[in-house]
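Researcher: I'd like a candidate sequence for this fold, 153 residues long. If you have to choose between options at a position, lean toward the conservative one.
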C-alpha cells in the first residue's frame, strides 16, 4: 500500500505529522499552533482538521486536537517509510541532510513491499542516521536478512 492511495492529500499527510509533532511530548495541540506550523490562517487550518476528523484520523474536542488510533497508524507508516529510505540513502554515501530531504520527498509514495525489502536488505535497522527509532514491522523484521539477485532478462 502507498500512503497516497489512502485518499489523503499531501497536505493532509503533512497535517498528521504536524499534529504528532505538536503532541509527542504530551502537550495538547491547539488550532493556533497547528495553523502556525502549517503556515495557514486558522480558518484554513480548521478546514484541514475537519477533513481529517471526517476521515477518522483526528479528534477535536474543547479546542484540543489529537490523532486517533487510525491517525497514529498512518504516522507510524510515515516514520517507518521516511527512516528506512533515509537510512538506506545515508548508508549509500549520501550526506545526512540530502538523505533526509530525499526521504521526505519519497515517504508518501513508496510501497510497503519496497520498504520491507529495503529494511531486509539493510538487516532490519533499529535507528535512522539521526538516532531516531525506526518502527519495526513484525512481518518484515522477524524474517532473516535476505538479498535475492534477480537475473536481468
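Model: Candidate sequence:
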Amino acid at each position: 500500500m502507498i500512503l497516497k492511495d489512502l485518499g489523503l492529500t499531501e497536505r493532509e499527510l503533512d497535517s498528521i505529522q504536524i499534529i504528532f509533532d505538536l503532541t509527542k511530548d504530551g502537550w495538547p495541540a491547539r488550532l493556533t499552533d497547528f495553523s502556525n506550523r502549517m503556515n495557514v490562517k486558522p480558518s484554513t487550518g480548521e478546514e484541514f482538521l475537519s477533513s481529517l476528523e471526517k476521515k477518522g484520523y483526528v479528534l477535536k474536542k474543547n479546542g484540543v486536537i489529537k490523532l486517533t488510533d487510525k491517525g497514529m497508524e498512518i504516522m507510524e507508516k510515515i516514520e517507518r517509510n521516511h527512516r528506512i529510505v533515509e537510512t538506506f540513502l545515508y548508508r549509500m554515501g549520501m550526506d545526512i541532510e540530502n538523505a533526509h530531504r530525499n526521504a521526505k520527498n519519497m515517504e508518501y509514495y513508496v510501497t510497503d513491499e519496497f520498504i520491507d525489502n529495503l529494511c531486509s536488505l539493510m538487516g532490519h535497522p533499529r535507528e535512522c542516521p539521526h538516532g531516531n527509532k525506526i518502527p519495526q514491522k513484525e512481518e518484515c523484521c522477524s524474517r532473516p536478512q535476505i538479498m535475492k539477485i534477480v537475473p536481468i532478462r
